[in-house]
Amino acid sequence: MTVVVTHHAIDRYLERVAPVSRLEAQAAMEAAARGIEASAAIGAYVVRLASGARLICRGRERIRVVTVIPAGEIVGGRVAVLPALRARRGWPQGRALQ
């Protein structure tokens, strides 16, 4: 299996997790490649980093990291719904995943 980190995922990492260089952000996500591959093998699409941030992945053989959700944000169903969006729409806040 191959793990590819998209430009969008790198941008979201810089915005939501840590203000580091693009190469450091990519390296941090690629360091989780073993966990990403294991998750894909069982059909999971979310991988949690040691920082608590979650990588959202797509694909089975060529796995793409498509975005990053910061630690403590709600991940529901197949998409992440951020608290600000939930509040704008009048939805209940729910609980953050641990």
| Largest pleated sheet | 4 strands, mixed
The overall average pLDDT, rounded, is 82
Find the count of extended strands (DSSP E, 2+ residues).
Answer: 6
Shape: globular
Radius of gyration over all CA atoms, rounded: 14 Å
Helix-strand sequence = EHHHEEEEEH
Uncertain ranges: none
What is the spatial order of strands in the main beta sheet? 1-4-3-2
Explain the layout of strands and helices.
Elements: E1 2-5, H1 7-16, H2 22-30, H3 33-41, E2 46-48, E3 54-58, E4 62-69, E5 75-76, E6 79-80, H4 83-89
Parallel strand pairs: 1-4
Antiparallel strand pairs: 2-3, 3-4, 5-6
Helix pairs in contact: 1-2
Short description:
It contains 4 helices and 6 strands, in the order βαααβββββα.
Q: What does this entry look like structurally?
A:
This protein is α+β, with helices and mostly antiparallel strands. The protein has one domain (2-73). The protein has helices at residues 7-16, 22-30, 33-41, 83-89, and strands spanning 2-5, 46-48, 54-58, 62-69, 75-76, 79-80. Strands 1-4-3-2 form a four-stranded mixed β-sheet. Strand 5 and strand 6 (79-80) form a beta hairpin. Helix 1 (7-16) crosses helix 2 (22-30). The model has no long low-confidence stretch (mean pLDDT 82). This is DUF4258 domain-containing protein.
